[in-house]
Amino acid sequence: MTFFLQLVVTGFALGMVYSLVSIGFVIILKCSNAFNIAQGHFVLIGGYLGYTFLVPFGLPIWTSLLLAIGVAIILGLLIERLTLRPLVGQPELAVIMVTIGLASVLEGLATLIWGGEYKTYHGVLPTVALKLGEISVPSEPLIGLIVSVIVVAVLMLFFRYTKIGLAMRATAEDLQVVRSVGIRATTVYAISWVIACVVGVIGGILLGGVSGVMIPLAEVGLKAFAVVLLGGVNSIGGAIVAGIILGVLENVAAGYLDPLLPRGGLANVFPFIVMIIVLIFKPHGLFGLVRIERI
Amino acid sequence: MGLCFGTFQEKYSQDMAIFRTRLQWGMLFAFIIFLLACPLFFSDRILTIMTMIGIAIISVHGLNILTGYCGQISIGHVGFMAVGAYISAILTAKLGWSFWTALPCAALAAGMAGLIFGLPSLKIKGFYLIMATVAAHFIIIWLILQIYDVTGGPDGLPVPKPKIGSIVLKSKGSYFYLVTAIACLSTLLTKNIVRTRAGRAFVAIRDNDLAAEVMGISLWSYKLQAFFIGCVYAGVAGALLVHYYAFASVDQFPFMDSVWYLGMLIVGGMGSNVGAIFGAISLKLLDELVTIVGPILSGAVAAPAAASLALITRGLVIIIFLIFEPRGLAHRWGMIKAYFKLWPFSHEE
User: Fold this and answer.
1) Which residue in A21, A195, A236, B271 is deepest, having the highest Cβ count within 10 Å?
2) How many Cα atoms within 13 Å fall on the side-chain side of residue B188?
3) Does residue A53 lie within any of the structural domains?
């Protein structure tokens, strides 16, 4: 029982980071109808940025976080302006493919700048020890959980109370109406990419603290897609719930089934198995809108 | 389109002919003679590149039928190549079958895998389908690693080279002939598949699936047919790849390669046979260029510059083509041909 609860708790914390990464994806999708394949690569860049500011520069964690967010904002603006803006109005496939190209460029840049090596900053993050009865919560996932909760709360407030947040929600509802009341759609698109970039980078710093940074960290993005599909692609709440579900399921399944399988590694494919099942039986996810098509 | 003025189509067979004029037949024969003569002139390194281009062309043709003609985007193409590769490898290495019986079985097995993972396409499309095919890739690779008694898992599996009678195709030149022959056949086959009833149904589904269904096209049947055909090509390409290296390993089927196959399709032009060939050739040559330029630059920048340079250039090429030439090289090629057809009296449109 302790083993099970331990798995659940660790999975919960990990799942919260997945949710965080997925939210970036959902925001872009809602605001500009673009599927961002490069979300995982924002995480990768985030991990390396975290490493750069924490270890070679030796900055304290909060300064590093703020600096990384600053870089993420610039990156998001650049990406939107240079690659996505020229494609407004193009078919869905073109936008998906451009983000795939973007993913490749980001991965190449990460390899070029940081050498594609394994970097870790395990002991650098502050340690928070927490014991719930017999279960000990490891420090890094706990920090991940706390930061994720804060970021999600900030985003919720942003979408509820700020003018641009409201404009973004309105754009998600109806582009025509938004334009007619004088909101610039391009600004909304730019902000949505900035937010996606920022949450990706924060997720990267957190995950980098848990498991170190390396090029395969970008595959977290693929897990985020499973989360997004499970939650329903256009639901932020869905992304949070599904992230936690997937994190817990993945950890529990890997904990119990891996010893039974000769080669293990179930945690890596588990999200994809969930993804296929969701796609076959409930293509719109748990909380997604069922889109009705007309000719 | 593309024919000189004064060429009149008087019979249906003339209208349908792929090679219509003497010039086209002449060019075909010149091209075949060029291909046959290649091993005489070129070094092993160039032959290797050309063999790889041939394999890529076969694979991209399959993806073109699936994505370019039927509109079902797949980023799991390499996964299906791996299925074909491993089936062929197991049949020849473990059961001692000949390459020529193993190849059709590999193609069929890859097609079957395509059918299974194509099932979600009946309910979903666009991004959802992309994700289903991504999942297909990872599940296939994981399964291959799981059954390591048969596949060798991460250690890989040595595979015999194909034989004709008692001649083993072990020189670069002989394997080049094999791949080129299959690549030419697959080009002819694709060209003909897309102008059958099924091919026209694929195009209708791509352009508007609801309208196609209303016209009486069975989405269920044709989408699965597209998956089957596309993955059969992938299976053949995968089998050729492992027999070339005489070794099968999952490292030969990285996820990013699926993305590059799609990239080749975009650079070449979707839904065009010439485009698939152009795309495969140009991206493979770009890779070669990068492997030549990379080490020169690596003095100036960090050590793994070649790898990162390849990623950056390929990504940039995809982005630039999408922004500036979304219809690909095939479209540009058509425009050049039209220009010279009218030259010197071309007019501005």
Assistant:
1) A21
2) 10
3) yes
Closest CA to A171 of A184, A157, A155: A184
Q: What is the ipTM of this complex?
A: 0.81
Q: CB–CB of B114/B227 below 8 Å? A: yes
Please identify every stretch of chain A with a pLDDT value under 50, giving residue numbers as ranges.
none
Q: A191: domain range?
A: 7-213
Considering only CB atoms, B319 lies closest to which of A96, A98, A225, namely A98
Cβ contact B145–A275 (<8 Å)? no
Determine the pLDDT at residue A156: 85
pLDDT in tens, B136-188: 998 899 888 888 788 877 788 888 888 887 777 778 888 899 999 999 999 99
The pLDDT score that the predictor gives to residue B82 is 94
Q: What residues pair up with A137 in beta bridges, in sequence order?
A: A130
Give the C-alpha separation, A212 to B82, whole Å.
30
Question: What does the block give as tokens for A244?
Answer: 């936690």
Give a yes or no: residue A142 inside a domain: yes
A218, A63 in Cβ contact below 8 A?
no
B210 Cα to chain A: minimum distance (Å): 6
Look at residue A88 in the predicted model and tell me its pLDDT.
79
Enter the pTM of the model: 0.85
Cβ–Cβ gap B311/A100 under 8 Å: no
Which ranges of chain A would DSSP assign to H, the alpha helix? 2-32, 39-54, 61-79, 92-114, 139-161, 163-173, 175-180, 185-211, 220-231, 236-257, 266-281
Number of domains in chain A: 1
Give the distance from residue A137's alpha carbon to the nearest chain B alpha carbon, in angstroms: 30
Q: Looking at the domain assignment, is residue A28 inside a domain?
A: yes
pLDDT at B81 over 90: yes
Q: Where are the domains of chain B?
A: 39-253, 255-349
Domain contains A44: yes
- Tell me the mean pLDDT in the region B90-106: 90
Peptide bond into A259 cis (omega under 30): no
Please state, as a whole number, how many other Cβ atoms lie within 10 Å of the Cβ of residue A292: 5
DSSP character string of B138-185: HHHHHHHHH-HHHH-GGG-EE-PPPEETTEE--SHHHHHHHHHHHHHH
Find tokens 């710093």 and name the residue: A205
* Spatial distance between the Cα atoms of B70 and A261, rounded to a whole number of angstroms: 38
* B77: contact with A, CB 8 A cutoff: no
Instruction: Write the residue in A93, A261, A275 that is nearest to B73 by C-beta.
Output: A93
- Is some CB atom of chain A closer than 8 A to the CB atom of B116? no
Q: B235-260: per-residue pLDDT in tens? A: 999 999 999 988 888 888 988 888 88
